[in-house]
Amino acid sequence: MDVVIDSSSVMARLGEVAIWSFDLEAWGECTQAPDDTSALTLFSRRVHVAPNELRVAERITGPRAVFKQDLAPASDEQIARTLQLLELHRSRTLSLLDAVSEDDLDTQDPTVEQPPWMPWRTPRQILHHIADTEARAYPRWCGLPQLGQVDDLRTELEASARHIGRVILEMPRSFTTEHRGETWTPVKLLRRLAWHERIELIFLRRRLSCTLQQ
Questions:
Q1: DSSP-based three-state secondary structure for 179
Q2: pLDDT tens digits along 156-191
Q3: 153-170 and 123-132 are packed helices; what angle lies between their axes, rounded to 10 degrees?
Q4: What is the rounded average pLDDT of the residues 188-207?
Q5: Beta strand segments in the chain, E
Q6: pLDDT for 143
Q7: For the chain, how far is it from start to end, CA to CA, in angstroms?
Q8: Helix or strand or coil: residue 82?
Q9: Cys-Cys link to 160, which of 29, 30, 103, 135 (CB 3.0-4.6 A)?
Q10: Exposed/middle/buried for 47, CB within 10 Å: 0-12, 13-18, 19+?
């Protein structure tokens, strides 16, 4: 499986590198670690491939860096796979929401470890962040339509899913834009969308683990 390494300025500020793959079987998968070897080992575990079967096809460095495959027009297959993953992750998110109480959503567990760049500390904050990122932040950074604020959490998650689905289907297949020194394209947007909710679900489950075990 071919993989690519993100050592851009954005990742350098975090003190990490990120491993991605444009293989649809690993679409939306990403691992981060302080060095290539650690990140590649984590990625091999994520996608159930032996480390020696991962081939580094490209590395990006510096500001405004973007992978060559990010610059290609978004394909039907990439769009379909992204929509499939978004539907899967959202159904899991809503199932978690239905399984807990309003009080559970506002609990803080100081024992849960998160990266320093993830400031949200309650399940409610994580859920709002999921919707805010996919329906407002990512579209804004790409110059695409954004969803207005919705107060009710479940309503927002449902509206956000519908909104980003329309955006994906209606956006141009090819464009390049920049936001705060980071380059965005349709392919980059798709793989980031396919990744984002999945990783947030990991931390959401950790923060709700005690409640879900009862």
A1: strand
A2: 999 999 999 999 999 999 999 999 989 999 999 999
A3: 30
A4: 95
A5: 2-8, 17-20, 31-33, 55-62, 177-179, 182-184
A6: 98
A7: 41
A8: helix
A9: 135
A10: middle
How many structural domains compose the chain? 2
- The CA-atom distances, in angstroms, between 189 and each of 31, 175, 177, 185 are 17, 11, 11, 6
Distance from C-alpha of 143 to C-alpha of 179, rounded to nearest angstrom: 9
Which residues have CB under 8 Å from 204's CB, separation 6+?
93, 96, 123, 126, 127
Of 65, 82, 97, which residue sits at a domain end? 65
Task: Please check whether residues 102 and 51 belong to one and the same domain.
Answer: no
3-class secondary structure per residue, 151-170: CCHHHHHHHHHHHHHHHHHH
What pLDDT score does 175 carry? Answer: 98
In this structure, are 103 and 142 located in the same domain? yes
Average pLDDT, the chain: 94
